[in-house]
Every structure is written in structure tokens, then in C-alpha cells.
Amino acid sequence: MADISTEEEGLRADEIGFDFVGLTLLGYTPQSQGLDKFKVLQSLIAKCTHPVIAEGNFNTPEQAARAIESGAYAVVVGTAITRPQCITRGFAEAVSKVNK
Length: 100
Fold this sequence. Notes:
It is built from five helices and four strands, in the order βαβαβαβαα. The chain is an alpha/beta fold. The longest helix has 15 residues, at 84-98.
């Protein structure tokens, strides 16, 4: 699987024959800051001959469902379920907004 951060990288990975193209690094590299993950995902799905995997910052059930609806082969949610400190932070932030 190619771990890519931009559409251009994904298209190149598809061209050279990676079995899967994963958006793993999208948003984590300087060249991918500010890119809309769903626009990149949808564009790659439309243009790639190999399956595209939604990975990296797909943190909610709604985002996972949207990725699958968009045509993603699979969704990797990783941190959203494997790091309790991230899960707890989300709850704490939501609750702290109510208490102010």
C-alpha cells in the first residue's frame, strides 16, 4: 500500500502499480496542509485503477460512512479507537463547552 499525502502522489502510486493507495499522510505533510480529505479521496477514487483506502484523520463514524459512500475500498480509523487519550480529550472538550 502506498501511503500518500496528495492527489499527485496517489496518482503516481497508482501508475507505478501499488496494490492500494492510502491517504495515510494527508494533512500531515507541508504539501498537504489544508487539503480537503474528501475532495482528494473522491478524486483519487475516480482516477485510480487500484483501490483507494481512507486513512488518516477519519475520526468519526460519520466520516467513515461518508468515505465508504464516496467509494473508498476501506476505512482505517486507527487513533480514533486505539488511543484513549484522544477519545477522552474529545469528550472533555465537548463537556467543557457546556460548563462555560
